[in-house]
From TrEMBL:
Species name: Prosthecochloris ethylica
The protein, known as: Ribose 5-phosphate isomerase B
Keywords: Isomerase
Domain of life: Bacteria
Classification lineage: Bacteria, Pseudomonadati, Chlorobiota, Chlorobiia, Chlorobiales
Alphabetized NCBIfam families for the sequence: PRK05571.1 (NF004051), rpiB (TIGR01120), rpiB_lacA_lacB (TIGR00689)
Length: 143
């Protein structure tokens, strides 16, 4: 199994706890980067922690949640080597891995539910990067 960094903001805190438990039940080692309550926080702080853990290799993949999923995905993508994808259903999660080789997956806590996230993570973890024409495109992401 993998070592997964997970983080959220206050809007994603409750779902993060559920996702963390599911990841652990499935044998993953989870590094919870916070927050540890639903007190208001700034999402970039936690997105950067998760992204840095993936970028430096201390974690294999990252999972982020915020209200819309957009803020954490934008923030994570500021870290060199990160390809964070906003996933709102299982099909998008698969494509994020297959076509974009995403290494951080982001969820909109206010617009999804735990079961959709579980199915999306199942798809994301089981999908493989297809390479080929997609590899050429992924290689163009970082200058």
């Amino acid at each position: 199994m993998m070592k997964i960094a997970i983080g959220s903001d206050h809007a994603g805190y409750e779902l993060k706890k559920t996702v963390r438990a599911w990841l652990e039940e499935h044998g993953h080692e989870v590094n919870d980067m916070g927050p540890y309550s639903d007190e208001s926080v700034d999402y970039p702080d936690y997105a950067h922690k998760v992204a840095r853990a993936v970028a430096d290799g201390s974690c294999d993949q990252g999972v982020l949640l915020c209200g819309s999923g957009v803020g954490v995905s934008i923030s994570a993508n500021k870290i060199s080597g990160i390809r964070a994808a906003l996933a709102f259903n299982p099909e998008i999660a698969s494509l994020a891995r297959q076509h974009n080789n995403a290494n951080v997956i982001c969820f909109p806590a206010r617009f999804t539910d735990a079961e959709t996230i579980r199915q999306s993570l199942d798809n994301w973890f089981s999908a493989d990067f297809e390479g080929g024409r997609h590899e050429r495109r992924v290689n163009k992401i970082e200058p």
